[in-house]
Amino acid sequence: MKNLKRILTLSILLLLFVEYSSAQEIVLNKYKFGEGLEFSGKDNNYKVEISGYLQPYTESKKYLDNDDSSLYNRMRLRRARLNFSGSSKKEKISYRLQLDLTGGGEGDASIGSLVFDAWIAYDFTKRIKLTFGQKATSTDNRELGMRSTTLQLAERSPISGAFASVREFGFFAESTYKISKQSYIKPEIAITNGDGINVFDKDHGGLKYGGRIDYLPFGLFNNFGQYRQADLVRELTPKFVIGANYSYNVGISDRRGSQSGTILYLDSQNKELLPDYVKYGIDFLFKYRGFSLLGEYINASARVPSGIVYRVRVDGTTATTFTVNGIQDVDSYIKGRMMVGEGFNLQSGYVFKNLFSIDGRIAHMKPQTNSFLNNGTFYNRSHYYTLGITKYLARNYGAKIQLDCTYINAKVGSNDINGNLIRGNEFITRVITTISF
Q1: Is 287 helix (H, G, I), strand (E, B) or coil?
Q2: CA–CA separation, 119 vs 87, rounded Å?
Q3: Rounded to an integer, what distance in angstroms lies between the CA atom of residue 384 and that of residue 350?
Q4: Per-residue pLDDT for 358 more than 50?
Q5: Are 13 and 6 in contact (CB under 8 A)?
Q6: pLDDT the model gives residue 102
Q7: I want to staple 283 with a disulfide (CB 3.0 to 4.6 A). Which of 85, 142, 146, 345 is the partner?
Q8: Is the pLDDT at 186 greater than 60, yes or no?
Q9: Are 340 and 347 in contact (CB under 8 A)?
Q10: Rounded to whole angstroms, how far apart are CA atoms 227 and 56?
Q11: Under 8 Å CB-to-CB from 163, ≥6 apart: which residues?
């Protein structure tokens, strides 16, 4: 039933697209490599764009100071996206349908959905845009608002993998106000389902409320540079944005509010009673003549209601044991299954005129005492040091080859991918290729 609903939804959207396009006189605009096919009406009232990209990916992991001298290799198609977007000036409407053909999504958790973006927006005024549907949310850290094709390094930062919900379904409002000759503020508000992508089955928990406000003191970035990492356009004057985000998720049923129904709790009347998830952060981006600097800080915490009595097992049965270190502790047990703690990411890079770039990143994770970030197999790592090199094959993000190496501090109690304890740290080498059309 779930797949049937998805197929029907997608079919209706595509039929509407085809019907609208066939009723218009369409002209194919001049093609630019990596920027998709753009069609427009002869009166230039509306535009339709079809684009996509592939990212083949290779990873090699080595555990240092360990008896195991093996290299653990992994090859996969990291991303395969197909995007349909369009706009109509007269009707003040824009839309996007983006398909994730791998089902892998972003971050550490697999989203597992064909539909990645599906939204329609209305320009309420010249400054205010209202959007309904599924899209990236402004309540994540800044890196999650940047397209995957523009990443400076082969993967997003560890804090993005740990705390981001990636895509959410709901209502979004964004605006831009010029407050002086050069400076702007850009406030955004989001009210979403709080469960990541659209839920076709039972929707657990309540809504998520949040927003972001950005301040740009030196004017707007060129060519959407605020939403892209490397400074390929080589900003002729310094560009800087600093922002803060906050969200309150009422009743989450997973580790961070990116899925629905994977972790459930009940009260004494066998009614669902779930913890709330609070997240806030501050971040900035600076660009000037090929140099870029990105900084992010995220803090996530949980509020556990006192009335929780039962936890629901994977097989649907319930249990009343919430044991932590041999002691019954409901609050600590629940937080131990959630992504609570803090982290920061600082990354920088420089794009040379020959289209080579050198990039680096330092990331730090500091989990709370009771947090899933202490899990020995998937997390329990404190510092990440990454150095990378990229060759851009065009003067845009259409095609590039990236190599980076990451040294990771594994804390005591960390495991390898087979669940065995490791004594040392980790070293990961990644290679990713981006091909856009």
Answers
A1: strand
A2: 12
A3: 20
A4: yes
A5: no
A6: 85
A7: 142
A8: yes
A9: no
A10: 23
A11: 140, 141, 256, 279, 298, 300, 339, 343
Maximum C-alpha span of the chain: 72
Q: What pLDDT sits at residue 3?
A: 46
DSSP 201: S
pLDDT at 140 over 80: yes
pLDDT over threshold 50, residue 2: no
Nearest CA among 393, 387, 391, 394 for reference residue 430: 387
Locate the DSSP E strands across 124-207. Answer: 128-135, 168-175, 177-178, 184-192
The per-residue b/e assignment along 197-224, b for 16 or more CB within 10 angstroms, e otherwise, is bbbeeebbbebbbbbbebbbebbebeee
Helix (H) or strand (E) holding 435: strand 426-436
- Find tokens 């004494």 and name the residue: 268
Q: Does residue 293 carry a pLDDT above 80?
A: yes
What residues contact residue 393 under an 8 Å CB cut-off, 6+ apart?
Answer: 355, 399, 400, 401
What token pair was written down for 318?
């319930």
Nearest to 262 by CA among 333, 201, 305, 323: 201
Instruction: Indicate the pLDDT class of residue 16, thresholds 50, 70 and 90.
Output: low
**What is the reported pTM?**
0.91
Rounded Cα–Cα distance for residues 264 and 316 (Å): 10
Burial (CB < 10 A; 0-12, 13-18, 19+), residue 70, is exposed
Question: Cα separation of 435 and 437, whole Å?
Answer: 7
The pair phi, psi for residue 259, each rounded to 5°, is -140, 170
The pLDDT of residue 356 is: 97
Per-residue pLDDT, averaged over 88-110, amounts to 78
Q: Is there a contact between 260 and 234 (Cβ–Cβ < 8 Å)? A: no
Residue 237 token pair: 């004057």
Q: Are 413 and 382 in contact (CB under 8 A)?
A: no
If you write DSSP's letter for every residue of 101-137 in order, what string do you get? Answer: SSS--SSSS----SEEEEEEEEESSSSEEEEEEEE--
Q: How far apart are CA 149 and CA 437, in angstroms?
A: 11
Long-range contacts of 18-22 (CB under 8 A, 24+ apart): 21/48
Mean pLDDT of all residues in 19-44: 73
CB under 8 A, 24+ apart: contacts of 125-130: 127/175, 127/176, 127/177, 128/173, 128/174, 128/175, 129/173, 129/174, 129/175, 130/171, 130/172, 130/173
For 382-394, what is each residue's pLDDT tens digit? 999 999 999 999 8
